[in-house]
Every structure is written in C-alpha cells, then in structure tokens.
Amino acid sequence: MSESMAPVAFVYDRCASRTVRHLEMRLLGCDSYVDRMGWSMAGRWIDLGEDALTAQRPKLVALLDAMQEAAAAREVLCLVHNWGRLSADGPERLAFQTRIVRAGGWSETTFGESDRHGRALLVGRRP
Which of 17, 6, 11, 15 is closest to 78 using CA atoms? Predict the structure, then answer.
C-alpha cells in the first residue's frame, strides 16, 4: 500500500498517573503497530491527570477535530494500545468510539481489535 493511500493513524492515550513509564511503553507499541501496518501517523494526543479521568477529554476532542478534517482526503483511524485507553467503562468507551466514527474514522487497538467493519452499527445505521 502506498503511503499516500495508506490510512492515517491518530494515536490516543490517557494517563492519570504521575509515572509515565507505562504511557511511554504504550506509545512505543502504537508507533510499532503503525509501522507494521504501513500507515501514516498524524500524531499523538494524550489526556493527562484529571483530564484522563473524565468524559470531557480535551486532547481527544482535539484529535476528533483533526481527524474529521483529515477524513475528507484519507481514511483515518484512532489507534489506542487497548480499549481501556479510551475508557474502562464499556458504555463510555462505546460513546467515544461512536464519536470517532462520526468524525469519519474507526478505532483500533495494537492487538488488532477493530470496529472498522461495524462502524455503521455504532451510529445506528444498517450495514
């Protein structure tokens, strides 16, 4: 796949801890996954501290804005290390995934889990 046609990954994470060692390891995993998949990377958006614990995630909102703009020209996705990086709460995670779909993309983890083919269901459309 040529890089100009490859999907663009928008890497997201959140970290409430003062220790960033685990965050750095997750981001390294995301970088490696992007390389393995042959995607381009738009950048990293990381909510820290209290922002990582609420549903009002300023960095995720900024990611969604950038993703929506890029989706006009390319396939886009939000890459997270695992689903817990969006939220440990199932309904909240699904709400974030729905926002990602509405921005024109899909979500994927570095473990190969993806909602790419079920996106229509997240926004209430039949496939």
Answer: 11
More confident residue, 93 or 127: 93
* Predicted TM-score (pTM) above 0.85: yes
Across the beta sheet with 40-48, the strand order is 40-48, 8-15, 76-80, 105-109
Strands 8-15, 40-48: pairing kind: parallel
81-102: burial string, b at 16+ Cβ within 10 Å, e else = bebebbbeeeeebeebbbbbbe
Query: Beta strands of 57-104 (E only): which ranges?
Result: 76-80
